[in-house]
Amino acid sequence: MNGKITKTIAIECLRYDPQTDAAPRYQTYEVPFTDEMSVLEGLQYIKDHLDGSLTFRWSCRMAICGSCGGMLNGVPKLSCESFLRDYYPEGVRIEPLNHFPIQRDLAIDQSDFLLKLRSVKAYLIPEAPKPVGEGTFLQTPQQLDDYYQYSKCINCLLCYAACPQYGLDRDFTGPGALALLHRYNADSRDAGKAERMELVNADEGVWGCTLVSYCSEVCPKGVDPARAVNQNKVESTKDYFLRFVAPRRSK
Amino acid sequence: MQVIQSDVVIIGGGGAGLRAAIAACERDSRLRVALVSKVVPMRSHTVAAEGGAAGVTRGDDSLQYHFDDTVSGGDWLCDQSVVEYFVAHCHEELVRLEHWGCPWSRQADGNINVRFFGGMKVPRTWFAADRSGFHILHTLFQTSLKYPGIKRYDEYFCVEVLVDDGRVRGVLAIEVATGEFVVFESPAVVLCTGGAGRVYRQNTNAGTVTGDGMGLAFRAGVPLRDLEFMQYHPTCLPGTGILMTEACRGEGAILVNKDGYRYLQDYGLGPLDPWPRVKAMELGPRDRLSQAFWHEMKKGRTIATPQGPAVHLDLRHLGAKKIHERLPLIAEAAHTFSGVDAVKEPIPVCPAVHYTMGGILTNVRCETPLPGLYAAGECASVGIHGANRLGSNSLTELVVFGRVAGEQAAHFALGAPRRAGSVLRQAQPTADRMLAMLRNEQGERLAVARDEMRDSMEAGAGIYRTKEGIEETCRKLAELRERYRRGIRLDDRGRAFNTEWLTAIELGNMLEVAQALAHSALERRESRGAHMRLDYEARDDVNFLKHSLACRRGEEPPRIDYMPVTITKSSPRARVYGGEGKQAVLT
Question: Of B352, B385, B400, which residue sits at a domain end?
Fold first, then answer.
């Protein structure tokens, strides 16, 4: 904190320690703040000066590591790029990201997403192994553009917190992992699409999506997972039209 | 206490750790590789690197040029045999990242595009927009998912390297979620834990960059080399220290003081024209640029902002298209964190602590003096950065030496005999000491001691240093270590997901690393690269063309020893930038 402090704001945090608490509760802290202070800095102030037991994740402070997502007044956001001034004077309520088990306070269990990332084969599967001595693949700026947007996913999981379908059915692969699946399918260097289509077509694949598109709205990096999912619905339809379209549409 | 058997344990899941894990698996797919990280790998600080990774690529570039730029950039404190190995292996590792899917920026014909960075004779920086570290990290992480031999232990915090009879036996870690202790028993351990920038206050580094591995190695008896060389990045947002990549200047941005004057011409980086010009003005090296800022500040020619003095980084003449295409993250960050539209206004910037040039002593095979212990990446001092790292050498370092460390550790593990006797005997005393921290009823708040350390480092071991200033910092650090021993009183007494506890353990590492840094700085009575002494303004090759080695002496301050620098083909000369050099063609 550098500027002159003249105001305080109420930060209400969900507290929950599964080891000792029967149920989550809320605790409010009065935090002095300046205009340039992020919500994350507010949480850090609490941890440093008021209550060292408040638990949350953070790291880069510049919206690239994906650690510090939370529900800010009910909206999934990165706390490092949200500012206390925007919640003044009413205050802000911070809860862990929706739809994930709580590990402690604001820290959620992200292991489900990590398993899904592996399951969608989010890595390049080339046609044939290419010796390093042969140099790089050629890829034009246009070909790069075809997938680049989807490669910007920082795995912050805000889209999962925004996804009503994931809230209902944890088996649904979900927006982030499906966007990364599409990122590799759309890469000119990749030949793994056929392997991934199995997952795209499955119950927990793209057809689980009910097209609410809130995932794209909350994405802090403009990845637009809803668009990725939709493009794969087209692909899935092409491949398996008769078998899949009719039953899933009724959902 | 749970004991997990592994062949290779890697601590840290950033660029170096992931590359090491993949290399170990590729060396022998039967090896059990444990990747232990205090954060899920894609949260590691590699993610925040912006500009790019150096590798000789163009026809008009050469390994000799890359070598020369690196050695002169490092003010002749690089180990030249290691630099030779490094420059020869950069390109292949960047190609390998490309084969794994890294979305490098391209030329129209589909070939890799390269850009200029400071201190470069020819452009050789591969970049993925200005999210190069992010893409390298995610490419490595996602690629690592292919290897069944890599078993990840995400959010396990390593607290000790276990040593028995002069050899590594494994590590002791805390599972963050439960607070339970876990021993990873293994003949080979690779430290890839990143730098120690957080011992300072104003910082480009993530909160996780707390010198853990340096502290671990130091306590295991391994010296820390050249720690006095701490890089200040010249262009960061005042207050937060958020990085505005050097690629801004590589793309043509300029630096001006409060009078709109390109002040770098007053500090041996001019003349202004022809411009842009290689290794001149804004394309000078980081140490020189940060030092020039300090002088401007002393002359009262900086701009006062609520977050402190600044100069202006002006991108406006690049135009909206180039800014959004080449520097999208910068435009976004300047807007979010400074409220500045980089297309329309200059960005206020100042120097902030950025990179730890020194670190755990290793040779070119990434071996530390302790058999079985390896180190790679920012936590290591393999010998390529000398007294000042050139921008874009460190991302390449992660993959070049991450691979070496993984292969060497795998090789060592395959030949290592299994040790008899329980490893728990080594682990128990540390575990008891850690648990005692939770019961401590005396002592001060964690943040108080931490902030005093940071302010003291900033004051005494900053861009310019004096004997008196560093001595005061050394005194303060000794006092803080004593206070730390007396106790930090934690609010949080449970074991499960107790981040206050882990932060207190980090502080223990940081105090020792800070002390090693300050004492190394005190003893180096010369100015070289990023280590500038107002009381010894010249470089002194007679007495100080040598590496410092901070050696641990328990509760006492470290002893500072020295070792020779390896010089193969480039004898120390004056470091010259600016001048009427070749005009640079920015693409």
Answer: B352
